Amino acid sequence: MRRVSRIAVAGVATAALAVTVSACGSSSTSSAASSGDDKNLGLALAYDVGGKGDQSFNDAATSGMEKADKEFGYTSTAVEPQDGESDADKVQRLETLAKQGYNPVVGVGYAYAPAVKEAAAKFPDTTFGIVDDEQVKADNVADLVFSEEQASYLAGVAAAKATKSNVVGFVGGVDVPLIHKFGAGFKQGVQDTKKGVTVKEQYLTETAAEGGFSSPDKGQSAAEGQIDAGADVVYAAAGLSGQGVIKAASAAKIWAIGVDSDQYQQDALKAYKSSILTSAMKNVEGAVYDLAKSVKDGKPQSGVVRGSLSNGGVSLASSNPTFSSDKTIQDAVTKAAEAIKAGTITVKTS
To answer: CA angle, corner 340, sides to 348 and 165, nearest 5?
Structure first.
């Protein structure tokens, strides 16, 4: 298993047992629940870069898996990615999980699209899910996607109301269309809310293989550069790299905006929580759980399943009391959210 420099993460509270998955020599972790159903062990997650402990969308997927285990008595499993792996490696991983009896099998991240397409064709009786991609079209595939630009717009509104320097920053993990959605929504939200605010933008890498989603040091360096340029609010859409952005914001005593999960609530980030204004969340936990439930109920989801502001699939976290009690920010965010839901604001995706 690859090793990535990480802020220490809290262990999973439930007991676990290790099992071996032959694909790529990966190891995985299964909860100790006993399903009592020989036909379906539960769901399987194949993590994206950053893996478990990213305090972002991989961990959100894990929470959805654990909820399904608790409710359905499953013995689900999750497999870490490997350095430098190919699409063929991913295919082998997914096929191994399907052969072992897991259903659904979920690729956590757009990089799994080719592998999901190939594996799903070979295992038509298994439901596959893919997070953050909607290109795979098959009767046994659910494309779990989100309107990230909508939550990012609200993050931009909050940043515009919070900034005193009139300079804010956006750090994207990888220069790809998915992350462009975050940046575009954020920039639009800032500019629609407060004219004259400068948005500094930086993407850490051109490809995920270069570490854009898994390098806190890269995130920290990018954020420090934006802070030196005057930014007093920095929003990161960079997976594990975002932890470095939050660390830099805390050191500079400015605001950070988290992503995907409610990062104010993350144990691994508690040392920096007072600097986390809010987080632009997408309900990966709910999407993974709902897919598992649909299989359990005998009515597997398929096709595009999109989370938006209207259905609660994306949102802005309100855990930080400083954020939730600021009437000026709350009024602006609420007004913007209602306008997006009503269709009077159309948020850009690029």
So the answer is: 65
